[in-house]
Amino acid sequence: MADDRLTDDRPATDPHTPATAAARALADERVDHRFKALPPDAEGRTVGELAAERRNLFDGGFTTPVLALSAESVEHNLALMETYAQRHGLAFAPHGKTCMAPQLFARQLEHGAWGITAAVPHQARVYRAHGIARIFLANELVDPAALRWLAAELDADPEFRFACYVDSPRGVELMDAALRAAGARRPVDVVIELGAGEGARTGARTEADCREVAAAVAATTTLRLVGVAGYEGEVPEADHTKVTAWLRRLVALTATFDAEGRFAGVDEIVVSAGGSAWFDAVAEVFAEIPDLSAPVLKLLRSGAYVSHDDGHYRHLTPFNRVPEEGALHPAFRLWAQVVSRPTPHQAFANAGKRDAAYDLDLPQAQVVRSARDGAERPATGVTVTGLSDQHAWLATESADALEVGDWVGMGLSHPCTSFDKWQLIPLVEADGTVVDFIRTFF
Ligand SMILES: Cc1ncc(COP(=O)(O)O)c(C=O)c1O
Q: Counting beta carbons within 10 angstroms of the beta carbon of residue 278, is it exposed (0 to 12), middle (13 to 18) or buried (19 or more)?
């Protein structure tokens, strides 16, 4: 970030110093037509120069639609999850696929995160290009080109720490063959993925299947088994009972593998689970992990928490069950302008599927900002009923609810599919001052 919240006071030995430096360097990029909504008259300035102007989102030359990320809410969410993880003895590798924003990764690391989680090789490449020292890839990695790249990264940087899933003997075979062909010198750390039950997504389905995969890993010299992981977010028809039962299977499997000597020689045993819907259950069950033959890295991977939302995660957040531990704040507001008002009950704003998450819920009209005097009022009686590519369909209860030119501020549902529609997102303080811009790499 361009402002002083990204401090340079990390010691040179801190593994996250390069991530902070890479995030700061993004301020040197030029602002131009590639970035939706940025002021046309800012063309050619660097991002840092534009941020230093501290323009106002509403009259600073931004064009609609424009997605705003609340500076205060993001800071609040970062601090809250840092405290939560500390309180429950969890290490944290926030899932970076949510935001794909190196500046937010740097803030997460500054807020105590161990590293950043990825889903696919491209994400890991983005992370490495931005100084991320520890990557947990929550997927099996069987692509030879990606494994060749990984082997080169690991060999070039002894400090780079990486682990990924394995869930099949065939996957192990493919990884081993690709790493041998690449001449990899350092073994790749892997964790066995236990599927979250029948009908769940990836992951070996039974403990016996996991044992087979572990045996396949042990038979290679290119892979090293360091732990066990999975994703409770995919437990079918999840509820507290089913999620904790599955998490207990994960913990029991870890303890059994350890007793069988399958982690012999590792400095740290990794046990990982946890998105943004069940981290309370993860904290509860991971607290039961017994002493093992090496220290345990209990790795939580929530990603959506960073912006939180006004829909899906607002309903699912564990803080609804444990309000005494805090509350996340929704950080996104999408501003669109009314461009057509053909009937008293219909209006159209200029934001659509290109701009707003729509895979889980439609946006929610929250506030209206008058084009006449900038006065804001609640969007009472205004409902988003549909999205076209570039239009929001609005139903209005009364003829005076909206007029052409008004700005409509909308809450969104699903952080992952909100971030990915914007490459440079204004970071905005409560009074409308734009203090920075968050660059994303999808
Ligand atoms: C394997 C895995 N881990 C962690 C997460 C992060 O969960 P959330 O997006 O709820 O924060 C996801 C999200 O899809 C995931 O697939």
A: buried
What is the Cα–Cα distance from 186 to 48, expressed in whole angstroms?
39
Q: 275 CB less than 6 Å from ligand 1?
A: yes
Q: Is 138 in the pocket of ligand 1 (CB under 6 A)?
A: yes
Domain limits for position 414: 28-70+308-441
Distance (angstroms) between ligand 1 centre and the Cα of 309 equals: 15
Q: What residues are paired with 438 via a beta bridge? A: 425
Is there an atom of ligand 1 within 6 Å of 98 CB?
Answer: yes
User: Residue 4, Cβ neighbours under 10 Å: how many?
Assistant: 7
Model pTM?
0.96
- pLDDT tens, position by position, 248-278: 999 999 999 999 999 999 999 999 999 999 9
- Residue with CA nearest ligand 1 atom 5: 275
Residue 276, ligand 1, Cβ within 6 A: yes
Q: What are phi and psi of 113, to 5 degrees?
A: -65, 145
> Is residue 11 situated within a structural domain?
no
Q: Please check whether residues 61 and 187 belong to one and the same domain.
A: no
Backbone φ and ψ for 122, nearest 5 degrees, come out as -60, -40
Provide the token pair at 418.
Answer: 């909100």
